[in-house]
Specification:
Shape: globular
Number of helices: 16
Largest sheet: 7 strands, parallel
Helix content: 10-25%
Distance between the termini: 75 Å
Structural class: alpha+beta
Number of strands: 41
Strand content: 25-35%
């Protein structure tokens, strides 16, 4: 066979062999007589006292301590008590990173190793091998290079683009000299208190030598970042528009950062009118002095986030945005970071992403939207850890990332495959946003996106908001965390068109998780504004914003099609297809009476610490007045009036026909009305409550969509249209709703994980809720992976519910957290006996 082909085969076989060794049962589970804690590394999981560490090539084993300094892995007996790390520091040790379970990578004077091993809380001490510092695919390459027989001609491959992280506190000059001594020219390092980040190129036989250099933390392949638009206005769906009308929240006072291709003309005076006058600052990072947008992606993204729709009929002076193409936060201000380079790539993104977010933070942004990423199939990489580092240092920031558009159906079974997430959407502390379907007329099916397996291939791309976009990347992350966190409409989204792109008009339809992310980021800005303006929180944490959004998210399982393993969205909740659900702003901050929302931010827990909260929850039947309020929170969206009524077929008598006879709360129903007097406006009512007026009625007929508020109860409901003295109506059933739900969401900004570990959760908090139905655990299990836990008791009965948050294992504490609770007629007590009114009543 050709030489290059043979070499690729050797690499593949070596990688398979390495994976087989690392996944062997002897390394994956402790011995039966020693059920001790495991150490979870990318290089393999093992119990050091039962089976021991995985074998690594001799060329990648630790050398004797340099300058009397050793890098070691030390594991404690169990959950880390607050005093234990201090005992290590008293020996002169530096704790560099945490490795689950209960272990640290430590740098300390070599002569102190015996004293550290003798500490009673220490279970095991071993070398921090250079092999542990390599991503698995690079470890396979290094193992292949080490296996080359002596005297055989070296068969170097093409140079590999690499990212290298160093530990803090090293002599960077010594590290750079060591890299240069290997014949490698590193790029300019990015420095911070967490260490250095470098880009470099090396051949596979140089990889092991790089890992041996003192101070190296991690080495991985560099994967180019890309925009997350698709491969070839949904404000009513997200329930942002009712929040505009109900609470007067439009994003005033909020500054939102966006890193993308640019913005329209690149001039503040001529930029698209929908954003003109609201650019707080613009950074041209990819093309110095030029932040224009010949690509169009950034302009569309920014419009979905904060466009005010003035070119589509809105009136910003009167805060009137209904029916326009306004984004989620139409009065927020923008910090733009144009990162598209001259070749159309994302060369303006810095190597260390903290250097992207800090200037936006300094300019006042506390929400940052990013519709790009690297297709790494769920890996927690250098970008992910740097995002988590930034958010640990800036806990009042909320950063959102597109989950990615790598969804595929490799086996053609009609179900999108798992494990296709972008990074940094895999970061623990960011909000990863997937794409549900939009709700817009289209004849395009998912077969146009390359899906050939039924039933997915024949599904329309934007006809059902209970379903997922086929291209939307699915989770889980490689360490089995739940991502995406949320989904939002991402197909056929109407937003701003850059005047530098082909086409005409002010707006254009695009699809992708790029589109769902800014819609959600605008909602995050409104959540932040609500906490400040109505709840008196001067500087809401990112964890609180995240918990608030997740607490109001709508379940959309089972999706559009399939059963069992062929079901589009798993019934298990939360899940790695839709996360905690589809974002719904009104449900998050202003649900209809008598549902209320309580929240708090806690200063922090250490290992074995706990906080307890008690509530009385009283589910109630909605009164007629409350049903009317629910109906009035619904929306009427006119779509091509009369277009679905064939010419000459309109009945002579007025009629209303609801196309769907049975729906779920939160659904959109299509209504046809015909036979009314022409040229008279039609008043639409739901259960007797006026929803709005239809004005496109020159033919005396309408086709319109009705969004049903998520609080609409099960049972029969009536929609009616009145034009002049003529009235007609039709009924439909709401089923599948859950009355009286009690929901608790816990979120915390976790300490950054280790790229060398195979489990990324560091500070582990546990949520439990005890009530009339017994005790329910967060995420329905003993969760040892996620820094979001939720208990959602549907059809919760009346009674007292006790919420407990416990610090199970807090290596870097204390760990602060946010807690959001929602339910009917909430009364916290019994000692405080404080009731929580529906939030709509708290203007």
């Amino acid at each position: 066979m050709p030489h290059a082909t043979g070499r690729r085969l050797m690499i593949f076989l070596t990688l398979l062999a390495l994976i087989a060794v690392l996944a062997s049962p002897a390394l994956a589970t402790p011995a039966a007589n020693d059920p001790g804690p495991m150490i979870h590394l990318q290089a393999g999981s093992f119990d050091p006292l039962a089976g021991g560490p995985p074998d690594v090539p001799a060329s990648l084993q630790a050398e004797p301590a340099k300058d009397g300094i050793s890098y070691v892995l030390v594991q404690f007996q169990g959950p880390i008590e607050q005093s234990w790390p201090e005992d290590l520091r008293n020996l002169g040790a530096e704790l560099l990173e945490y490795i689950p379970d209960y272990a640290y990578v430590v740098r300390l004077p070599a002569y102190q190793l015996p004293a550290m091993a003798e500490l009673p809380q220490v279970r095991w001490v071993g070398p921090w091998q250079p092999a542990y510092r390599l991503a698995p695919d690079l470890l396979a390459l290094a193992a292949l290079a080490a296996a080359t027989e002596e005297g055989e001609e070296s068969q170097q491959g093409e140079p590999i683009d690499l990212t290298l992280l160093s530990y803090p506190g090293i002599d960077l000059g010594v590290l750079l000299a060591g890299i240069a001594g290997l014949g490698i020219e590193p790029g300019e390092p990015s420095l911070s208190a967490w260490g250095a980040t470098l880009r470099l190129q090396a051949t596979d036989d140089q990889v092991a030598s790089l890992a041996l250099l003192p101070g190296v933390q991690w080495i991985e392949r560099f994967v180019s970042r890309q925009l997350a638009n698709d491969r070839v206005q949904n404000n009513w769906l997200l329930q942002t528009a009712p929040i505009w009308n109900l609470l007067g929240l439009y994003g005033q006072g909020q500054i939102v950062g966006v890193a993308d291709s640019g913005l329209d003309t690149g001039s503040a005076s001529t930029v698209h009118q929908d954003v003109r006058g609201r650019i707080a600052q613009a950074f041209a990072l990819g093309r110095p002095g030029n932040w224009s947008d010949p690509n169009g992606h950034g302009t569309h993204v920014i419009g979905s986030l904060l466009g005010n729709g003035v070119r589509s009929g809105s009136n910003p002076d009167a805060h009137q945005y209904a029916g326009s193409a306004a984004g989620s936060a139409p009065e927020a201000r923008l910090v733009l970071q144009s990162v598209m380079d001259a070749s159309g790539g994302l060369g303006g993104l810095p190597l260390d992403l903290r250097n992207l977010f800090q200037p936006a933070y300094d300019a006042g942004a506390r929400v940052h939207s990013n519709s790009w990423g690297a297709p790494v199939n769920g890996r927690y990489d250098a970008d992910s850890v740097n995002v988590d580092r930034f958010l640990w240092d800036r806990k009042d920031m909320t950063i959102l990332f597109a989950a990615g558009n790598e969804g595929m159906d490799a086996n053609n079974n009609g179900v999108v495959d798992a494990d296709s997430l972008y990074s940094p959407a895999t970061a623990k502390n960011a909000i990863a946003v997937g794409a549900s379907e939009g709700q817009r007329s289209s004849t395009v099916t998912w077969s146009a996106y390359g899906f050939t397996g039924a039933p997915l291939s024949g599904d329309l791309v934007s006809d059902n908001h209970w379903g997922m976009a086929g291209f939307s990347s699915r989770g889980p992350t490689d360490d089995n965390r739940i991502k995406p966190d949320l989904v939002a409409p991402g197909t056929n989204i109407r937003s701003l068109r850059s005047s530098l792109t082909s086409g005409s008009g002010d707006y254009v339809l695009l699809s992708g998780t790029s589109m769902s992310t800014p819609l959600t980021a605008g909602m995050a800005a409104l959540v932040r504004q609500w906490h400040q303006q109505f709840r008196g929180v001067a500087n809401p944490s990112g964890a609180l914003v995240k918990a608030t959004l997740l607490n109001g998210a709508m379940r959309i399982d089972p999706g559009q099609y399939g059963t069992g393993s062929a079901q589009e969205i798993p019934t298990a909740w939360p899940n790695t297809v839709a996360g905690w659900g589809r974002a719904n702003l009104k449900h998050s901050i202003a649900p209809a009476s008598p549902r209320g929302v309580w929240f708090m931010e806690h200063g922090g827990l250490t290992t074995n610490g706990s906080a307890t909260y008690t509530f009385r929850h009283t589910p109630a039947q909605r009164s007629p007045a409350q049903l009317a309020e629910i109906a009035q929170d619904s929306a009427v969206e006119v779509v091509e009036a009369g277009s679905e009524l064939a010419a000459g077929t309109a009945p002579t008598a007025a009629s209303v026909n609801v196309q769907e006879s049975t729906v779920r709360p939160g659904a959109i129903v299509t209504v046809q009305a015909a036979g009314f007097p022409a040229n008279q406006p039609g008043t639409v009512k739901l259960d007797g409550a006026t929803l709005g007026t239809l004005n496109e009625n020159s033919s005396g007929s309408w086709t319109f969509r009705l969004f049903l508020n998520t609080e609409l109860p099960n049972g029969s409901h009536t929609v009616s249209v009145t034009a002049g003295s003529t009235t007609a109506s039709d009924t439909f059933q709401v089923t599948g709703g859950k009355d009286g739900t009690f929901r608790v969401t816990l979120a915390w900004t976790d300490f950054p994980g280790s790229t060398g570990a195979s489990v990324q959760l560091v500070n582990d908090l546990d949520l439990t809720v005890s009530g009339p139905q017994g005790t329910v655990k967060g995420n329905n299990t003993d969760d040892r992976r996620n820094n979001v836990e939720e208990v959602w008791i549907q059809d919760a009965g009346p009674g007292t519910y006790t919420i407990t948050v416990r610090g199970r294992n807090v290596p870097y504490g204390p760990q602060s957290f946010a807690l959001v609770v929602s339910g009917d007629n909430l009364v916290q007590g019994p000692s405080t006996a404080r009731s929580f009114l529906p939030l709509a009543m708290r203007k």
